[in-house]
Amino acid sequence: MKIQELSKGLFKENPILVLMLGLCPTLAVSTKAIYGIGMGAAVIFVLTCSNVIISLIKDFIPDKIRIPSYIVVIATFVTIVDYVMKAYTPELHKSLGIFIPLIVVNCIILGRAEAFAAKKNVLDSFFDGIGMGLGFTLALTLIAVIREILGAGTITLKLLGYGWIVEIPHLNPMIVMILPPGAFITIGLILGFSNILKKR
Amino acid sequence: MYRLSVSPHIHSKASVSRIMWTFIVALMPAMAASIWFFGPRALYLEIISVATAVITELLTGLLLKKRITLSDGSAVITGLLVAFNMPVSVPYYVPIVGSFFGIAIVKQLFGGLGYNIFNPALAARVFVMFAWLPEMTTWNAPLTTSGFSKLAGFNFSIDTITTATPLAIAKMKGMAGLLTEFGSKMGMYKDLFLGKCPGCIGETSALALLLGAGLLLLTKIIRWPIPLSYLATVVLICLLSGNDPIFHLLSGGLILGAFFMATDYVTSPMTPKGMILFGVGCGLVTMVLRLKGGLPEGVSFSILFMNALAPLIDRYFKNPVLGVKT
Amino acid sequence: MEHYLIIIVSAAFINNFVLSRFLGLCPFIGVSKRLDSALGMGMAVIFVLTFASVITYMIHRFLLLPYHLEFLKTISFILVIATLVQFVEMVIHKTAPTLYESLGIYLPLITTNCAVLGAALLNINENYNLLESALNGFGAGVGFTVALILMASIREKLELARVPRSFKGAPITFIIAGILSLIFLCFKGIIAE
């Protein structure tokens, strides 16, 4: 049961590839592999925490002010992530820019709160948050790796001086892939191909 | 309300391929000029580009289980136009990626011939332009002797003298810069008309392009409204802004674009009024980009931009009533 | 004067909110099937974006900054936007029922349109003053509407096309957006000088 809640987010209900939620940050920050991982980590934190809290308080909240209360919970965790990242990973924080505070309107978070956490128990909601967050991170990083390889000829896995930057030899990178058109075309093709796989 | 039908109102397969092959014949003078002025490498770029386009069309056709439409020649046209829009010194993978992008993504994913929203060759050019900007904006001076003699002598090297296109010179140094480059005004007009100036391999020779355009106009494969309103707008803006209209008509990809790419049936409006608006829009955007833009040339962008607007234009100038000649 | 014009043109075209900043993608994909609904959505977004830019600016300037409450930025902005959308909905409903009928269904959707919160945050990042914020919000709305209308007209035409089944809907819409974004890229150089 718990494993199911965890694994469904990875493939069967992958938030980006299948549910098509959270596309704005996916396209905006997928220019380097590390941005994908960083953004993903922020989303996993916010999604898991807000899922747990919302599932805890769901019985005390009047139905009418449900959505605004969820938004307050989510915005609180987003602010925490925003400030923590600003303090410890300032470079990454700067690169992700307004897309960290914008996690607040990321449809994945509110979507999971409304569709899952508001109905299920705390433990399930916890695993759902982690699973969905991981699925988001996986798809986002995949897209970032594709774009970075084609558009810059590198895979950047370096943060705060740790990790490494892989360089792909003999490749004349296509700059357009790390520009906005490359993002749209990549996600269009990936969604199309994942539709083909789904039908199999 | 009238329902818009998809635009090439063509009734038999034979007429499609007749149009396409005539179109290819019309591109031949410009192809010859490209080899004459830029040498055998221009020919190789054209062959590689056409081959990629044809193979991509074949493979995607098989994958998508479409009726294979190779014989209509449209892939050959796209491949040729992709190569025409490149400088002679680009690495060979540039036309390969360009033609693949044009055919696989801009044409086949949109439903194939007759359904594409954007001109595949133009979208391909803009895509590779932003992919490899340095390679796409390195220009070679035309050869001093005929490229055919190099072809006959199996001399495949390219001259390594790089230079700036007339439009880039005009942008940076103005008319004075052009005059030092070409000697005199008449000399400049002559060189630009014949095609003896740096630029994309298929766009420089106005003479060769106009020969082909004449054939297309005589056989009524393309019609006057778009090229005429396009060129007229360019002339008008030049006169209003104090620029040399003849220079702007003859330089860059204007003639290639106005006659061979803006006139594409599928990606331009269907009604005469819509066509005129389309041409005026192309002219306007071209001149704004040439005079104010970051890049010296704006023909491909402007036509692609108007391609995006064509469905809207068609909505406002609806299809004429069937059977009524307009 | 020119400075203000540049802010609008830049937000609308050069740094188009949808095609180069990736803001407001959900409604861009969701509401671009038909031209008339795209127009309605666009108008509603222009309206809300302009108002939200003004109000969030005032909150930041007169409430958060003086009392050192900047950490409440995200939370207060999103609540203000949600309230504003509700309020606008009520006002339009009371004063202009016909407008409400055409815009009504799109208004609730705007709360989660990240273009609105995005514009508010960008205004703060760019240190815009009140008028500049309003114009930036307005320009962003216009840019969103232009992109949405272009996309809707293209998708209507494409309805008759034989797009491969797996690419129908969102995938082909993203590919169109990619090509539109290529076109918008070339406007970048114009204002740079």
What layout of secondary structure does this protein have?
The complex is a heterotrimer of chains A (200), B (326) and C (193).
Chain A (H helix, E strand, L loop, with lengths): L1 H6 L15 H7 L3 H25 L8 H23 L1 H7 L10 H11 L4 H31 L1 E6 L2 E6 L12 H20 L1
Antiparallel strand pairs in A: 1-2
Helix pairs in contact in A: 3-4, 3-6, 3-7, 4-5, 4-6, 6-7, 7-8
Chain B lengths: L12 H26 L1 H24 L10 H11 L8 H15 L12 H12 L1 H4 L2 E2 L6 H6 L9 E2 L2 H17 L2 H10 L11 H13 L6 H17 L3 H6 L3 H8 L10 H21 L6 H18 L10
Chain C lengths: L1 H13 L10 H6 L4 H30 L8 H23 L1 H7 L3 H4 L3 H12 L4 H29 L11 H16 L2 H5 L1
Helix pairs in contact in C: 1-8, 3-4, 3-7, 3-8, 4-5, 4-7, 7-8, 8-9
| SSE topology string of chain C | HHHHHHHHHH
Rg calc of chain C: 17 Å
Using the CA coordinates, give the radius of gyration of chain A: 17 Å
Structural category of chain C: mainly alpha
Number of strands of chain A: 2
Number of helices in the DSSP assignment of chain A: 8
- In helices, the fraction of residues of chain C equals over 70%
Give the % helix of chain A.
55-70%
Structurally, how many domains make up the residues of chain C? 1
Write down the overall geometry of chain A. Answer: globular
Major beta sheet, strand line-up of chain A: 1-2
Low-confidence blocks of residues of chain A: none
Helix and strand content put the structural class of chain A at: mainly alpha
Low-confidence stretches of chain C: none
- Measure the end-to-end span of chain C: 17 Å
Which percent band covers the strand fraction of chain A?
5-15%
Mean pLDDT of chain A: 86
Helical run tally of chain C: 10
Number of domains of chain A: 1
What does the main sheet of chain C amount to? Answer: none
